[in-house]
């Protein structure tokens, strides 16, 4: 097969076959025509060699501008392709600038309802996702989706891609049911149209896994993700960036299931490969490093976690700025580690900042904001600010009851946390109102977060002189690390 005849929907599958031949062909050849540059870029892009793809795509843009001018469709398509490569390189602001320019020109030349204009609208919405601007992504994506459905149909790849981007935005804004509904529809349509093993089917299947993780359906997520990883290794190879993304999702599931050693093993492997392929400062490489640190936290190796979390936060601040969701996530993780190490002064500064940023990004009711507030409450309690700690936990509990219901595990764990605070304040009556019903519903829940909160409760019981209740907890949750004896 000649590379000029590789279908667009088959590039990923064929790229690995052509890659050695192109590498051999290009040795010593510095002059490449625009047509061949475009084809070489497609192969490198499909194989996940984004730095080489960028070189050729930038060359195509430059030559098309000289030959056809800034407003020609060939030039605009080349700019869109270069923006795609910038996205994969983690250079999201560069991608956004290019796509805004392309979209403005296409609206002027082709009109709002042309297929090329619609695709640019969808691409720009995707860029907002990676910049952590989820409301902007929704605002750009919703009208694009309506136009895609009306003009190109519900099964068009552009329609499905836009649906996927909207699902991702909904997911990060805490609209979990909306995200799940969209992703199930995408997966079903991709499977019917392309088959179960096609890369464009495996991608939405992996995104569906991420939604299951957010919904706390970890066993379903694990089963589905193991299947996705096996298929991607077979179809794309072990080192392809999309395979590595799926492996990182699997590691995240292991982390949340408490299988920290297995998670860390996977994360280290992914980190090493991403460092080689994408570079050490790429956002996805930094995400792998952050995940390794989380495994250290789960293994209670807090000093090791700290060694990784400090440089990850510094890099994310340099690359994405203080207000990006990845940077704020790193602030929260580092604050949590400082809590565990008893460095409450450092924890307090970071946790206050994390809550402020989370409120700005996602609002008061988002699960990530509530988690940040709960962590800050723990820090307030540790530094003797009991009233501030109690007020925060009461607020978290009210919001979790309103959004997720009384029986949600996060609501129940918040009840236990607040109950433990009342114990420490000597208010046994209020403590029991919260602890007793929550404890009954959490029996049998082996989530690491449940075990951790019960361990804290056992400590609070012992501090209050209630040794019998503490020992009862050790029986009900036998995998708990024994809390310190008094």
UniProtKB/TrEMBL annotation:
<dbReference type="Pfam" id="PF13374">
    <property type="entry name" value="TPR_10"/>
</dbReference>
<dbReference type="InterPro" id="IPR011990">
    <property type="entry name" value="TPR-like_helical_dom_sf"/>
</dbReference>
<protein>
    <submittedName>
        <fullName>Kinesin light chain</fullName>
    </submittedName>
</protein>
<dbReference type="InterPro" id="IPR053137">
    <property type="entry name" value="NLR-like"/>
</dbReference>
<dbReference type="Pfam" id="PF13424">
    <property type="entry name" value="TPR_12"/>
</dbReference>
């Amino acid at each position: 097969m000649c590379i000029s005849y590789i279908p667009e929907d088959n590039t990923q599958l064929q790229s690995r076959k052509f890659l050695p031949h192109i590498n051999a062909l290009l040795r010593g050849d510095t002059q490449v025509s625009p047509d061949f540059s475009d084809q070489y870029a497609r192969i490198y892009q499909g194989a996940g060699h984004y730095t080489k793809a960028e070189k050729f795509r930038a060359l195509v843009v430059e030559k098309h501008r000289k030959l056809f001018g800034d407003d020609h469709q060939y030039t605009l398509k080349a700019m869109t392709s270069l923006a795609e490569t910038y996205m994969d390189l983690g250079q999201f602001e560069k991608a956004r600038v290019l796509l805004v320019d392309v979209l403005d020109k296409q609206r002027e030349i082709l009109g709002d309802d042309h297929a090329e204009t619609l695709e640019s609208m969808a691409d720009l919405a995707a860029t907002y996702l990676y910049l952590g601007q989820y409301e902007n992504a929704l605002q750009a994506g919703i009208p694009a989706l309506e136009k895609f459905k009306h003009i190109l149909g519900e099964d068009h790849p552009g329609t499905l891609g836009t649906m996927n981007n909207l699902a991702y935005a909904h997911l990060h804004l805490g609209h979990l049911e909306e995200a799940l509904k969209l992703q199930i529809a995408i997966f079903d349509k991709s499977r019917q149209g392309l088959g179960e093993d096609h890369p464009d089917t495996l991608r939405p299947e992996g995104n569906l896994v991420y939604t299951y993780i957010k919904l706390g359906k970890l066993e379903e997520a694990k089963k589905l993700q193991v299947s996705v990883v096996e298929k991607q290794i077979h179809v794309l190879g072990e080192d392809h960036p999309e395979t590595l993304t799926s492996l990182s999702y699997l590691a995240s599931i292991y982390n949340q299931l408490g299988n920290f050693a297995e998670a860390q093993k996977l994360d280290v492997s992914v980190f090493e490969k991403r460092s080689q392929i994408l570079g050490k400062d790429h956002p996805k490489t930094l995400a792998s490093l952050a995940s390794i640190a989380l495994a250290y936290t789960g293994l209670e190796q807090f000093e090791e976690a700290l060694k990784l979390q400090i440089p990850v936060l510094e890099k994310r601040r340099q690359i994405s700025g203080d207000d990006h969701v990845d940077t704020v996530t790193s602030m929260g993780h580092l604050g949590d580690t400082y809590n565990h190490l008893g460095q409450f002064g450092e924890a307090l500064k970071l946790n206050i900042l994390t809550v402020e940023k989370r409120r700005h990004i996602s609002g008061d009711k988002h699960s990530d904001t509530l988690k940040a507030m709960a962590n800050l409450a723990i820090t307030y309690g540790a530094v003797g600010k009991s009233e501030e700690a109690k007020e925060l936990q009461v607020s978290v509990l009210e919001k979790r009851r309103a959004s997720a219901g009384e029986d949600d595990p996060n609501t129940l764990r918040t009840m236990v946390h607040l109950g433990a605070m009342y114990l420490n304040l000597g208010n046994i009556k209020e403590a029991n109102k919260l602890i007793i019903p929550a404890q009954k519903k959490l029996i049998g829940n082996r989530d690491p977060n449940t075990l951790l909160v019960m361990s804290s409760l056992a400590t609070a019981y012992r501090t209050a002189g209630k040794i019998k209740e503490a020992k009862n907890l050790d029986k009900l949750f036998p995998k708990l690390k024994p809390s310190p004896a008094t």
